[in-house]
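Internal tracking record. Fields below are filled automatically when a chain is submitted to the structure queue. Please do not edit lines marked as system-generated. If the sequence contains nonstandard residues, flag them in the REMARKS field before resubmitting.
Queue: standard
Priority: normal
Entity type: single polypeptide chain
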Amino acid sequence: MNDDAARQPADDASQRGQRPGQAPAPDPSRTPWRVEPAPDGRGTPEKSGKGGKTGRPKPPAGMSWQRFGALLLALFALNFFLTTLLPGGERPARISYSPVFLNQVKAGNVKEISSRGETVSGKFREAFDPPGKSGKTKKFTTELPTFAVNGSALSKLLEQNNVEINAESPNQGRSLVATLLISLLPTLLLIGVFVFIARRMAASAGGGLGQQFGRSKAKRVEAGTTRTTFNDVAGIEEAKEELMEVVDFLRNPDKYKKLGAKIPRGVLLSGAPGTGKTLLARAMAGEAEVPFFSASASEFIEMIVGVGASRVRDLFDEAKKAAPAIIFIDELDAIGRARGGGGGIGGHDEREQTLNQVLTEMDGFDPSLGVIVLAATNRPEILDSALLRPGRFDRRVAVQSPDKIGRAQILEVHTRSVPLEKDIDLEGIAASTPGMVGADLANLVNEAALLAAKRGHERVQLTDFTDGLEKVILGAERRVVMSDAERERTAYHEAGHALVGMLTKGADPVRKISIIPRGQALGVTLSAPEADRFNYDQAYLRGKILVALGGRVAEEVVYGTITTGAESDIQQLTNIARGMVVRWGMSEAIGPIAVEASQANGMLLPGTDGVSQATQQLIDTEVRRIVDEAHHDVTILLTEHRDQLEQLTQELLKVETLDEKEAYIAAGVERRRSGENAPTHQPSTGQPPSAPLEEPAEV
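SYSTEM-GENERATED OUTPUT FOLLOWS
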């Protein structure tokens, strides 16, 4: 259950309560590294290559994108130069009709003209330098005024001076060959570049552009370059033991083959986010010392139909060539959802084609090849049943959240490079973090280190961890200016939660009380167990309801009124009370009958719960009875211990935050040590869980 992992030295494993089943001591010549790639440069992930060859594959011989872009710019520049800058012959000079044009006609210097509308263009017999122009020219153009067009004087003048009148302009511009060359040359060059690139890519990769697009994007890590081993993984011993059997088969296949045993074709890792599924896959590749192909399921899906299936084929082909090998597909649910959900037209969308190809490839494996498909998912319940049948994913490994010992081991991993004060007890911190997975614990250590650096500590102290835990659970402190009256009400609310928890038998010990606003909460009461517990009795569940009601009842006892501050507390206790009635059979009126409505994909399906209206009314009545009885008991409890409530509240108003020892002293309650506590965090105004007690709850 661990994002990053750590070696657990054999000489002190027993001191930390390490369980049997740990991986054997690593080979001293293969020192694992937490951060990849290793300092020697090995372990860098590479794109899948051909034939399982080692080393970094050479890049294709085709033209790079930088060179291709530079060539395009050069072609555009050439086209602009040919069409714009190169002259198409001598350009005609624009002259005035009068007096320049008329004078040149009278002087007999106009050889020929042609007209189009009111525009006249022509040639001089001898080069002429028009006024306002630079240089002599033989070609000219001018505009005729309207009176000159309608009259016959101009025609007579042109005839008298032997001016040739043509039907088309003497200025024909470029020749036909030049025009075709300028128009077609850039296009022909561009087509030639594309043909050249396509041929180079086909020659270097054995296929054209379409085949390149359908190649797998999986990263390949060669055997011996993965530095992570099972000794680098902590807190998930059961999952490690499951995978060690598969690793042993890859290392010693003959031992199993002589007894007729077959290697599992697929191993499915399932568990909550952050439990260490991807880390286990890397460790498995490092232990087996075989090529490792890693890909995300979403990389197979493209807009173009058929690309995903093509990439799946290419990935499995590469793995077969490099066999024995491991294929790891992360987030398998991206392509492995159950088919028939109407996501595509006729059930033939791209995702289903990709899934069908995965099924076909896994079914066609030769067990003697030694290729194993390893997949990870957070939602195994939505996977297609064809994926989970024997012969495909034969082995399913559930990666669970760690227990207290596992959390302590994980904290040791993440604090290896963090200087700690000598009085810090990692096992005590692990006991205060039930339900947390490796990613959560890594975040906790990082937050504690950041707080220590911010406060100028040379070493991380216990207060840094406790404050970091509050920040992880509830968020950063808010600078909210509250009035004295609102601040006092918040203190009574939190003191009510804490005092009920201290006085209720079997309730989780109070670890910290604070009236400093954090996140959406104006105050917080943290409760955590002394030991992990995986089963919950009726008395404990009722105790959780009592503690959740403590804040609201304290306001009622002191002020006689209520506020909106108990919203999340009410949601939490309602979920627990309803679960006792409809899920766990803890109501005598309902009995041991499951009357919870059916759900599909998290949505309630109306008409499928099979619960009559009378039964539903009885459920509501029972839930109300449980809550009302708890409310009555909490009211009596806080009324009888009003003095202790006042003492705890006044101390909170004075110092704002009380740790475990200070809180019990301020309340005048003796701290009881009990093993009857269940794992939970209980911030008083946090968000309620959707499924109470299946996971650690927040109140």
